[in-house]
Amino acid sequence: MKGYLLITGAFFVWSTWGIVVRWLGLPASEIIFFNAVFAAVFQGGWLAVRGRREGARLMPDIVPSLWLGFFGLVNLLSFVYALKTTTVAAALLTHYVAPVLVAVLAPLTVKDRMGRDTLVALAVAAAGLVFIFAGGLDFSDGRGILGAASGTLSGLAYAAVILYSRALSPRNHPLKLSVVQAVLTIAVIGALIPWLKFKTPHIAQLSVIAVTSLFHSTLANVSYLKGIRSVTAQEAGVLGYFEPVLGITLAFIFLGEVPYPIALVGGALIIGSGVSVIYRGGRGAGSREVL
Question: Average of pLDDT values for 197-220?
Fold first, then answer.
């Protein structure tokens, strides 16, 4: 049960990305860069203390860790761009093509077995997304289409993140994996700064980015990477459906983006599928811990 709760908690935190991005009003690359700078400080300091005591080593699996960092960067950059370009609902829902890809690829890559209950939960969650799409997301203008395409790209990258996390987390300290992503992000975006025309964020914006980095990119990342040690990649994908439901709800409350009634039916199906995964995991806890 612990692994399911850790992953669900991470998605609760990540569901607030839409609010943060809209409030900041900065380019996606700038948000991600400064977020990574703060994350490297937080995670580096934490790793220096905890990692030394727990025997974390940086060099083993460094190449796959870099691939995880690369896909994490693509995921976050395209997702934040989608949030800035289209509605929060459209960005989140196109992003969640990922669980379908994970369900297909996980048995071939990380050898996670596809349980019948997980397959049923995935089908129910996917049906929920169909209801939400049927509610009439507006992709009519060019920016909406571009945002939806960016959200889909983030979903493809997120599928790779899930699979790499599942493969690497059992034998690597979660702080190590998070630090690698932060450093890689700083290096890649930093090299492009002369062409990105960065503006200097004001102190309030930097403060929000710092808080976001602590919760979204550090605590939630570590929570997710710890949780996925004992949760299959497919189950992590299904639990991820909590994020669009929560994100759309928050967009309605704080941004005035009103969901269609049929979208609420879809949200109920999604929540139900996630709850069933957590309940089943609690009943079978202890039999699949990797570490």
Answer: 93
Domain ranges across the chain = 2-283
Integer Cα distance of 110 and 181 in angstroms: 21
Amino acid at the residue 144: G
Sign of CA dihedral 31, 99, 269, 12: negative
The answer to whether the beta carbons of residues 60 and 172 sit under 8 Å apart is yes
Q: Which residue has the higher pLDDT, 9 or 126?
A: 9
Nearest by Cα to 50 from 222, 215, 232: 222
d(CA 279, CA 226) in angstroms, rounded, equals 19
Residue 136 has pLDDT above 70, yes or no: no
User: Phi/psi zone of residue 17: left (φ > 0), alpha (ψ -120 to 50 degrees), beta?
Assistant: alpha
Closest CA to 38 of 249, 179, 189: 179
What is d(CA 2, CA 71) in angstroms, rounded to the nearest whole number? Answer: 26
Q: Report which DSSP code applies to 258.
A: P
What is the reported pLDDT for 176?
86
- pLDDT score for 286: 41
pTM of the full structure: 0.83
How crowded is residue 262: how many other Cβ atoms within 10 Å of its Cβ?
15
